[in-house]
């Protein structure tokens, strides 16, 4: 069952990001900050073994000398052990590794320094205060290091976006996608499109200016028209895939739905590996939408447990049913859960007729790319009964109680 679910989630999640402005090799604008040197804690907040504090700007070398006086600057891009002291009082702050990155061979293209200090809050606070006392230095604004890297042509816009996604990646799929973009995959694609348009424009201009000359190749205009039409198709495909990239970034929306007491909450708890929903034999236990993020084989997903779909209930549960139906319309993937021992009940039949069958109506094989039918409680079926309902659409047979059917199967 896992592999079947992972496959459908990956289909919903995989794909390139929506297109952004193309890459940029340089900048026509002056570097931000008007010559100011910035500093900030680059590693995460909180106690840790090592914390990294870095600076960027023309006064970086002066800041390094001020905290390690009277020592000279270390060799470029080589770590050196230095005693850091407060430039005002001379009080020792920490013994740290320092690195010197002279521009333009640095992340931002400016002179940069890094202080690898011990990660205690007092040490980090002391070093930051010492840097703040150095003339010409100020705390960096959010994202200012990356903004300077872009302004100095070290990163393109697509690479900046990839870097942000890589920092915030929580799953393997998000990491791989962000790393591909940071390495320039999307930028190379945009540059290819730009080169195609430039070439086509050159051919059209040549045809306009030199159409009467014998030196002009035959079919130049037809070739330009063909290339532009191919590019139009490629752009259309990429734009249609933009939603997949968003799913990978924010997570595919997986909605668990079905009639009351089918085992929806048990399945949510099983997939999330924690007690997200209350499980009870009493129908209508879940009356609101409960959400939890999960990592399915490296693909992010937002799992939603919904109220059992039925009629003739109280106003509170009826509101839960209304919200469940609304979530079904918004879902990237629906996990339709039915009780394998109670498929003939009115609630199960109504769910099959109103949700399961319409979802697969457009597919000749009866399968849906956005719905997975799950028959729960297989442990209650008679012994030796492998699949008592072969007439149903493609489905998975499992038991949330025993775990049978939840492991990857070879036919997926």
UniProtKB/TrEMBL annotation:
Protein name: tRNA modification GTPase GTPBP3, mitochondrial isoform X3
Transmembrane segments: none
The keyword DNA-binding is annotated on this UniProt entry: no
Keyword GTP-binding: yes
HAMAP family: GTPase_MnmE
Gene3D superfamilies in the record: P-loop containing nucleotide triphosphate hydrolases (3.40.50.300), Probable tRNA modification gtpase trme, domain 1 (3.30.1360.120)
Region (Disordered): 14-34
Species of provenance: Odocoileus virginianus (White-tailed deer)
PROSITE patterns linked: G_TRME
Sorted UniProt keywords: GTP-binding, Nucleotide-binding
Ranges where the TrmE-type G domain occurs: 251-412
Highest classification ranks of the organism: Eukaryota, Metazoa, Chordata, Craniata, Vertebrata
Pfam families, alphabetized: MnmE_helical, TrmE_N
InterPro entries registered for this protein in UniProt: G_TrmE, GTP-bd_TrmE_N, GTPase_MnmE, MnmE_helical, P-loop_NTPase, Small_GTP-bd, TrmE/GcvT-like
């Amino acid at each position: 069952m896992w592999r079947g679910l992972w496959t459908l989630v990956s289909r919903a999640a995989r794909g390139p990001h929506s297109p952004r402005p193309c890459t940029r090799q340089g900048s026509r604008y002056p570097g931000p900050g008007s010559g100011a040197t910035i500093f900030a804690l680059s590693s995460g907040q909180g106690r840790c073994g090592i914390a990294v504090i870095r600076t960027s700007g023309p006064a970086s070398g002066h800041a390094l000398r001020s905290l390690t006086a009277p020592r000279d600057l270390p060799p470029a891009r080589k770590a050196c052990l230095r005693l850091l002291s407060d430039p005002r009082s001379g009080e020792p702050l920490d013994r740290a590794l320092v690195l010197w990155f002279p521009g333009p061979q640095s992340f931002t293209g400016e002179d940069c320094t890094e202080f690898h200090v011990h990660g205690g809050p007092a040490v980090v606070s002391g070093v930051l205060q010492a840097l703040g006392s150095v003339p010409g230095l100020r705390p960096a604004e959010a994202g200012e290091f990356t903004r300077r890297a872009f302004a100095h042509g070290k990163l393109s816009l697509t690479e900046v976006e990839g870097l942000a996604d890589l920092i915030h990646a929580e799953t393997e799929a998000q990491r791989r996608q962000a790393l591909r973009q940071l390495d320039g995959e999307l930028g190379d694609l945009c540059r290819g499109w730009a080169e195609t348009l430039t070439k086509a424009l050159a051919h059209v201009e040549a045809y306009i200016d030199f159409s009467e000359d014998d030196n002009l190749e035959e079919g130049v205009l037809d070739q330009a028209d063909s290339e532009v039409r191919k590019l139009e198709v490629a752009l259309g495909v990429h734009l249609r895939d933009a939603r997949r990239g968003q799913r990978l970034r924010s997570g595919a929306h997986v909605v668990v739905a079905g009639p009351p007491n089918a085992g929806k909450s048990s399945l949510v708890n099983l997939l999330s590996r924690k007690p997200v929903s209350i499980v009870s034999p009493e129908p209508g236990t879940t009356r609101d939408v409960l959400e939890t993020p999960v990592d399915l084989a490296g693909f992010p997903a937002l799992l939603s447990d919904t109220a059992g779909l039925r009629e003739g209930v109280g106003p509170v549960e009826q509101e839960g049913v209304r919200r469940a139906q609304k979530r079904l319309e918004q879902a990237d993937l629906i996990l339709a859960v039915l009780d394998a021992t109670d498929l003939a009940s009115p609630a199960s039949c109504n769910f099959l007729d109103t949700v399961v069958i319409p979802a697969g109506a457009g597919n000749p094989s009866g399968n849906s790319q956005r719905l997975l039918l799950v028959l729960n409680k297989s442990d209650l079926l008679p012994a030796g009964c492998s699949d008592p309902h072969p007439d149903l659409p493609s489905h998975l047979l499992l038991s949330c109680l025993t775990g049978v059917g939840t492991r990857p199967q070879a036919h997926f």
